[in-house]
Amino acid sequence: MAFRNPVRSLPASRITGQLTGSQIQDGVIGYPHLKGPLSSASAVRFLDVMNDADLWESLAPSSGTWSIVSSSDATTGGTVLRAVGDVNLRSRVRIPHDPDVLYRVSVRVRTATQGTGVPTVFLGLYGLAADGVTTVNRDGLAQIGNQAYACAIFQSLPSASGWVTYTGYVRGRAAAGVSGGTGANPQMTNPLTLHGNVRFVAPYARLDFANPSVTGSTVEIDRVSVDAVYTGLLTAEAIAAGAIDGQVITGATVRTSDGFPRIELAPDGNLYFYTAADQDPGLIRVDGTDGVLQLVGPNGDGVEYGVTFQKAFGSSSATFDTDQVSVGGMFYADNYRTGRVTITPSAANTPTSTTITGVGMGGSGPVRAYATASTTVPGSQVTGVGCTSANRDGVTVWVTRTNTTATGIDWALIGD
Fold first, then answer.
1. Strand 271-274 versus strand 279-280 pairing type
2. Are 56 and 3 contacting, i.e. CB atoms less than 8 angstroms apart?
């Protein structure tokens, strides 16, 4: 006996009793049939271990072939998706996209057989409109190209690499749909942004991208996952007080700002002081070879600037508590002035002077003056040299000799 009009659908109101697993044919209900809360759950954690061919579909252009096959090399489950040649694949699962959530997308893939060249892969998410059908790429167009290749874009996949996991991050939407670049986006601090019209996403893989010089390759996918990273970025609110106290952080660069000016503690052990983008930074450098601590001034336009100690914090002096202070090059202090003046005596055995002005020495304390003659006949012909009226702007220098020969006098002023 056959039914002329077989039942193709049955409303929930007509179902009585309990529907058990034995009454449902194996494989009838899959991800594509999930609605409501079950469908939304895939937006939190989606994992495909490549054991169901019905969860994937080929998109044009796709000249190769693919299938689900058993594999003892699968790291998750016992099957892999195996693609031979250029295959363009999209998952049938529609994951609701929340623009306020950071998504981590991972694809574990390998080249099982390398043909005439190294295959190239594109891995990430495929954008769809609110109807779950209409394609929306990064530019907002209904085109397969320019999808969210957050995991890999034009990525070479040599067989020698074995299994490789490519991970990318996606967050938010924008009118242009290109914020955060075009992929790949392996850093959660720089996620790929989808177009503003995207409402659903589906895992996407372009394997052995068409290239006339590359043929005969077999590429396998072990697993695909999409996770909602609800913790977001690491913020101050997420760190408990004292959580980092006493801990060792290695390999990090600590900056006071991303811009200028800023101070930066680098892994090389140096402390850098940046003032502008077009200027090499000043730094405190530790030289382990010579055993010295160096203060280096910034460099701008090829000019090396010195290091200046200025009066600050109520202190008027800088103290170097050490057995030896070495200066490479000229030593200069604002309370110290030197010079040379030539004096021609007005008469033999008559003290003759000249006054030096415009010295402009810094400080405010007493000034001491010193002078000596540049001569080979001290005592016999040059019988005396002296200084009077020493101040921070100048000094009067004297010379006496037994004749009227012009004499060079070196003088020095030192202020307290």
1. unpaired
2. no
- Kindly report the length of the chain: 416
Q: What is the pLDDT of residues 117-148, one digit of tens each?
A: 899 999 999 999 999 999 999 999 999 989 99
The CA-based angle 254-259-265, given to 5 degrees, is 20
Instruction: Tell which phi-psi region holds residue 197, choosing left (phi > 0), alpha (psi between -120 and 50) or beta.
Output: alpha
Sequence-separated (6 or more) residues with CB below 8 Å from residue 40: 96
- Closest by alpha carbon to 343, among 354, 355, 359? 354
Tokens 């989606």 sit on residue: 46
349-399 pLDDT, tens digit each: 999 999 999 998 988 889 999 999 999 999 999 999 999 999 999 999 999
CB 226 within 8 A of CB 132: no
What per-residue confidence (pLDDT) applies to 38? 44
Q: Which whole number is the average pLDDT over 63-73?
A: 93
Written in H, E and C, the secondary structure of the chain is: CCCCCCCCCCCHHHCCCCCCHHHCCCCCCCHHHCCHHHHHHCCCEEEECCCCHHHEEECCCCCCEEEEEECCCCCCCCEEEEEECCEEEEECCCEECCCCCEEEEEEEEEEEECCCCCCEEEEEEEEECCCCCCECCCCCCCCCCCCEEEEEEEEECCHHHCCEEEEEEEEEEECCCCCCCCCCCCCCCCCEEEECCCCEEEEEEEECCCECCECCCEEEEEEEEEEEECCCCCCHHHCCCCCCCCCCCCCCCEECCCCCCEEEECCCCCEEEECCCCEECEEEEEECCCCEEEEECCEECCEECCCCCCCECCECCCCCCCCCCCCCCCCCCCCEEEEEEEECCCCCCCCEEEEECCCCCCCCCCEEEEEEEECCCECCCEEEEEEEEEECCEEEEEEEECCCCCEEEEEEEEEC
Q: Is the pLDDT of residue 37 over 50?
A: no
Rounded to an integer, the average pLDDT of 37-51 is 70
